[in-house]
Automatic annotation (TrEMBL):
<dbReference type="InterPro" id="IPR020847">
    <property type="entry name" value="AP_endonuclease_F1_BS"/>
</dbReference>
<dbReference type="GO" id="GO:0008311">
    <property type="term" value="F:double-stranded DNA 3'-5' DNA exonuclease activity"/>
</dbReference>
<feature type="site" description="Transition state stabilizer">
    <location>
        <position position="147"/>
    </location>
</feature>
<dbReference type="InterPro" id="IPR005135">
    <property type="entry name" value="Endo/exonuclease/phosphatase"/>
</dbReference>
<dbReference type="GO" id="GO:0004519">
    <property type="term" value="F:endonuclease activity"/>
</dbReference>
<dbReference type="InterPro" id="IPR036691">
    <property type="entry name" value="Endo/exonu/phosph_ase_sf"/>
</dbReference>
<feature type="binding site">
    <location>
        <position position="245"/>
    </location>
    <ligand>
        <name>Mg(2+)</name>
    </ligand>
</feature>
<dbReference type="InterPro" id="IPR020848">
    <property type="entry name" value="AP_endonuclease_F1_CS"/>
</dbReference>
<feature type="binding site">
    <location>
        <position position="147"/>
    </location>
    <ligand>
        <name>Mg(2+)</name>
    </ligand>
</feature>
<dbReference type="GO" id="GO:0006281">
    <property type="term" value="P:DNA repair"/>
</dbReference>
<feature type="active site" description="Proton donor/acceptor">
    <location>
        <position position="145"/>
    </location>
</feature>
<dbReference type="GO" id="GO:0003677">
    <property type="term" value="F:DNA binding"/>
</dbReference>
<keyword id="KW-0479">Metal-binding</keyword>
<feature type="binding site">
    <location>
        <position position="7"/>
    </location>
    <ligand>
        <name>Mg(2+)</name>
    </ligand>
</feature>
<feature type="site" description="Important for catalytic activity">
    <location>
        <position position="216"/>
    </location>
</feature>
<keyword id="KW-0460">Magnesium</keyword>
<dbReference type="GO" id="GO:0046872">
    <property type="term" value="F:metal ion binding"/>
</dbReference>
DNA sequence: ATGACATTGGTACAATGA
């Protein structure tokens, strides 16, 4: 079971790259963020022709999430239950024994802003829901664009980024709280190359200089630890002529 | 340097991202 996540920054622009990548990596489940599509424009027929079922939650212009899968999704949940959120950020479904939650965490803009307050509220709601999901389903994967760099080693210039958005103590405390519910960071379960990022700014030749952040994550419930075989960031799609600013993260589980 | 670059909606440039 190969589970992946990728912020594509517009699925209409990136669809050819997504189709290429599905062919190259053959994930069983791929969570997408920032589809930036209304539900009526979701390219489900193209994806089905490539061998993937889709479930999605969209809105005009911003946000938008989807789960693509070899097998059809079961028990689909759109949005965080009980959270009245006009922003399309969450879609969850069950694949075999595994509950997969695909999420596009709020950016938060800057500490002290209204958007930061929204991010904190949203994180509270996610945490409460994840606790319930873990009580119901033994095997849970929380994947997506977290917009949180959990530690200084996840930041190309931790001094410059200290206290900045994605790196604030409040965001990092929320990340640890998710782990404390009984999850672990699949990427950090293995030795990884230093300076591993999942996002590079479009500006300033950041990708060429490898100046980035690791903000896209795959968290797995402890019940899945023994079956995790590998976890990696695939930088290949970031080398495209017209790439997303994010690279996919992949976790491979036995069976 | 409220900058750079990319995307959407709409057809000029503001909002948003991270």
């Amino acid at each position: 079971m190969k589970i992946a996540t990728w912020n594509v920054n517009s699925l209409s622009v990136r669809l050819p790259q997504v189709l290429d990548w599905l062919h190259a990596q053959s994930p069983d489940v791929l969570a997408l963020q920032e589809t930036k599509l209304t539900d009526d424009r979701f390219p489900h027929a193209d994806l089905l022709a490539a061998g993937y079922h889709s479930v999605w939650l969209g809105q005009p212009t911003y946000n938008g999430v989807a789960l693509l899968s070899r097998e059809p999704a079961q028990q689909v949940q759109r949005g965080i239950p009980g959270l009245d959120d006009p922003q399309a950020r969450v879609i969850a479904a069950t694949f075999g024994e595994i509950r997969v939650i695909g999420a596009y965490f709020p950016n938060g803009q800057a500490p002290g802003s209204d958007k930061f307050a929204y991010k904190m509220q949203w994180l509270d709601a996610l945490q409460a829901w994840l606790a319930k999901e873990l009580a119901q389903d033994a095997k849970v994967a929380l994947v997506g664009d977290f917009n949180i760099a959990p530690e200084d080693r996840d930041v190309y210039d931790p001094v410059a980024w200290e206290g900045q958005i994605h790196c604030t103590p409040e965001e990092r405390a929320h990340f640890r709280s998710l782990l404390d519910l009984g999850m672990f960071d699949a990427f950090r379960a293995f030795e990884q190359p230093p300076k591993s990022w999942s996002w590079w700014d479009y500006r300033n030749l950041a990708f060429r200089k490898n100046q980035g952040l690791r903000i896209d994550h795959i968290l797995l419930s402890e019940s899945l630890r023994a079956s995790l075989r590998q976890c990696f960031i695939d930088k290949a799609p970031r080398k495209n002529e017209r790439p997303s600013d994010h690279a996919p993260v992949v976790a491979e589980l036995e069976t």
